Write a sequence for this structure.
């Protein structure tokens, strides 16, 4: 999975960001029938005590219409862990890791669940 997520993130227009970005979140979705998807959003605030920070989106880099999607027979806990692992690896080695880590935090979570903080400044 890592190589596919890496390719997807590298294809995003992360060279040009809005001025007031505070943090990034990778939103996970259970699309049904063993289909999953991820979108990336930039948010204008971050608060480790208030997970609603990820709702304050200011950019989605076109990922709302073009998410990273795949089919896998797994439960949501396994998907969360698999995506977290891939994103942590990206934050260590990825082409845009420094861009993502140049702000307050990077999170990942299902839109109706908890956010896991993968990086905090």
């Amino acid at each position: 999975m890592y190589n596919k997520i890496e390719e997807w993130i590298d294809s995003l227009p992360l060279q040009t960001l809005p001025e007031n970005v505070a943090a990034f979140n990778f939103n996970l979705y259970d699309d049904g029938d063993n289909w999953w998807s991820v979108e990336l959003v930039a948010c204008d605030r971050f608060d480790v005590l208030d997970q609603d920070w990820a709702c304050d989106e200011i950019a989605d880099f076109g990922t709302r219409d073009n998410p990273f999607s795949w089919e896998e027979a797994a439960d949501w806990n396994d998907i969360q862990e698999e995506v977290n692992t891939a994103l942590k690896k990206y934050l260590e080695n990825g082409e845009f890791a420094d861009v993502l880590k140049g702000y307050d935090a990077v999170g990942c979570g299902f839109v109706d669940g908890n956010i896991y903080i993968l990086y905090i400044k």
Q: What stands out?
A: The chain has one domain: 2-120.
